[in-house]
Design goal:
The protein has about 70 residues and is an all-alpha fold. The chain has one domain. Helix content is about 80%, strand content about 0%. The chain contains three helices and no strands. The chain is elongated, with a radius of gyration of 16 Å.
Length: about 70
Amino acid sequence: MEVLKNLLFVAFLIGWIVLGLWLIIRSGALFGLCDDHRSESPGARSFGVAHIVAVWIGGFALGVYFLVN
């Protein structure tokens, strides 16, 4: 059962890394200027990016924590 749990956490971490790489590759389209919201400030965009990065790091840290414990 322990091996299955560890395999699931490793699979989660691999998927999480792939998601992070996809976000980096598509960052211009996902976090760039939007024609529909021209009044959006650069600060609002950077806050959104910082929030997504913080959630990604937190999810990765939790996955590693549960993998080693």
